[in-house]
Sequence to fold (267 residues):
Amino acid sequence: MPNRLDLETILVDRNDGVATITLNRPEKLNSFNAGMHAALKHALTEVESDGVTRTVVLTGAGRGFCAGQDLGDRDVSDGAEPPDLGETLDTLYNPLVLKLRSLPMPVIAAVNGVAAGAGCNIALACDLVFAAQSAKFIQAFCKIGLVPDSGGTWVLPRLVGRQRALGMALLGEPVTAEQAQEWGLIWKAVPDADLTATVSALAAHLSTQPTKGLGFIKQAINQSAGHNLEQQLDLERDLQRMAGRTNDYREGVRAFMGKRPAIFRGS
Ligand code: LHQ
Fold:
């Protein structure tokens, strides 16, 4: 499989601490091929290390967010060697999900339209998910004989419980943005026309907040799923120790005591 970097498939806009990453294969509902995976990996590596990005927004170009894997990318004709989809997950999707979850700043998914298959689960790997009211969340895998991947079987029961997770995964029916919000699958459904402004305002706000502290919060919540209470208390202690050594903690307390707005630098 080629792993070339197709930069046109991923657009990156950086502005005042917010990096907006747009999946850009609209004619294929932003489904993933190897080139788009490589470009997204490159973009995420850059925003992680550029020293200025304090919030990441992930969205899609055109009428969809992402329809998962590009199904035209595999030879499924009679006589063709069966593809090793496990390898695709190992090398492309799993590292992507882990990267989104471990970025040391908030990642917002702005789900502008349908999020299907791995596209749905990549949105759910982000920290806060906003969706346009017309967007739909579809665990499409069962329709083509596959298993929800990209963390779907892990995140769904944790977010919405076993029954709804199984309903989504076994039936592959679209879940509306409003239903998704009601179930706790996503943070908020907003009118289509308001999605960009709502997410931009939130991203701008988050980029003025104590970025290191937000990164520690994200780490604590993410790790809680595999911890008992004692382990989690230990983790909170370790993270709080680090948070207490940040400049932003000092600034936050000084601003509170001085009855003035805090100016957080993300350090
Ligand atoms: C597409 C796709 C698509 C290519 C729409 N591929 N062209 C991981 C490991 C490795 C391999 C296997 O997969 C995985 C993880 C996965 O993600 S498996 C699940 C893959 N995704 C799906 O099964 C979803 C397939 N798409 C759909 O069911 C529909 O397109 C949805 C429900 C997302 C949207 O339906 P509509 O709004 O009616 O749009 P459409 O079907 O007309 O799609 C628009 C165009 O996009 C169309 O092309 P065309 O040339 O006819 O205009 C589609 O063929 C193309 N497209 N999804 N995944």
Remarks:
- The radius of gyration is 19 Å.
- Residues 28-29, 31, 67-72, 85, 88-89, 93, 114, 116-118, 138, 140-141, 144, 146, 149 surround LHQ (CB under 6 Å).
- The domain at 211-257 is CATH 1.10.12 (Lyase 2-enoyl-coa Hydratase; Chain  A, domain 2).
